[in-house]
TrEMBL record:
Pfam families: MARVEL. Keywords: Glycoprotein, Membrane, Transmembrane, Transmembrane helix. It is a multi-pass membrane protein. It comes from Heterocephalus glaber. The chain crosses the membrane at residues 95-117, 129-150, 189-211. Residues 10-215 form the MARVEL domain. The keyword Transmembrane helix applies. Belongs to the synaptophysin/synaptobrevin family. This is Synaptophysin-like protein 1 isoform X3. GO terms for cellular component: synaptic vesicle membrane. It is found in: Membrane. The keyword Glycoprotein applies.
Length: 237
């Protein structure tokens, strides 16, 4: 077996293989959320005139209260730039994306450790235990961050949907008539939530394999050597 093939052996074991899956899932998590850009449109008319489109563009980190409306002209004499969407969901979105990026970097570091320093990892008591603690904490944080982001996404869909017609002040004043037009599909954001919970499952399952590498599960080498090297006592003693 070549040296290259020996280095790839840890990746063929559950510990390394699942870490690769965690690395890939983390990429999809922050990419599908952090790279999103969309817009919502309403149709505005005055006294039965032709409908004009007024658009508000939004995206990560979803500070909707900074997303102002834009129109090609002063529709109905309203300065639409002074009106914005409602809500600020940046805390949940940034927490989710930032944590996913940290997980991505941690997976790279641990993969390098598994592949390049396998013996060091397995002969050490501290490294597997540290890896186990990080894995358990990461599982919990995936649950928290994904749940918070899922709730924020639900609110974002409401804030950029037909409800905005009821919230905009110009739409409540005659002779302005507003109708909801469209909003960008948020399928990629739905995918980010799915990958968030998938990450939680991966990290939770991987906790068992990491636990098996710790001293809590495996007896120490010293104890093992004593058990095997000692001679059996004579019967009757």
């Amino acid at each position: 077996m070549s040296a290259f093939q020996m280095n790839l052996v840890p990746l063929q074991e559950p510990l390394g293989f699942i870490k690769v899956l965690e690395w890939i899932a983390a990429i999809f998590s922050f990419a599908t959320c952090g790279g999103f850009k969309g817009k919502t449109e309403i149709l505005v008319s005055c006294n039965g005139t032709k409908n004009e489109t007024v658009t508000a563009t939004f995206g990560y980190p979803f500070r909707l209260n900074q997303a102002s409306f834009q129109s090609p002209s002063s529709v109905c004499g309203v300065d639409w730039k002074r009106h914005v969407l409602i809500g600020d969901y940046s805390s949940s979105a940034q927490f989710y994306v930032t944590f996913a990026v940290f997980v991505f970097l941690y997976c790279i570091a641990t993969l390098l450790l598994y592949v390049g320093y396998t013996n060091l990892y397995r002969d050490s008591r501290k490294l597997p235990m540290t890896d186990f603690v990080v894995t358990v904490v990461a599982t919990f944080l995936w649950l928290v961050s994904t749940s918070a982001w899922a709730k924020a996404l639900t609110d974002i869909k409401v804030a950029t949907g037909p409800r905005i017609v009821q919230e905009l002040l110009p739409c409540k004043q005659s002779p302005t008539a507003c109708h909801f037009g469209s909003v960008t599909s948020m399928g990629s954001l739905n995918v980010s939530v799915i990958f968030g919970f998938l990450n939680m499952i991966l990290w939770g399952g991987n906790a068992w394999f990491v636990y098996k590498e710790t001293s809590l599960h495996s007896p120490s080498n010293t104890s093992g050597s004593h058990g095997q090297g000692g001679a059996a006592p004579p019967p009757g003693i």
